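Write out the 3D structure for:
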Amino acid sequence: MNLSGLKYLIISLYLIQFCAFISSTVITLFKRHSTIKRLAFRSSPAMDTSSEMALSIIHQMKQLARKLKVDTLTAKVLNEEGLNYFYMGNYKKAAQVWDSCASIWKKELPLSYNHARAVNNIGNAYMYNSEYYEALKTFFNALKISQQINSKKSVSQVLNNIG
């Protein structure tokens, strides 16, 4: 790889990281204010526009990550996309996106915190979609991964979801 290609790669990675940060910051703000979030999603065209704008940015980041052929970066972008769908209330789509994310992590780093988190997120999507049996099966899968990597943080998150 020549120097200009390396510069392009570094700039692209920073852009993706920045966009992911903005996306997750917006999501965190709405997560903390769930009542406001529910009302806003039901009644405000501005909120729908913001959600669509976030998804548009994420789709651009996903295309860039795939163009760069960096699967772990693609998985991180997919995680952000799943979060957006989840907080928009589209739990089925969130589960599908996180399933793609988990598949990449399973292939690239099967025993990693990111893989456990993606599987745990799928379980949350099932739970919020009232698919409790599937949620429990998925949570126990996430628990198994979390225990294998010896991550107390991940184990506690999964056990919280199970309990």
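DSSP finds eight helices and no strands in the chain.
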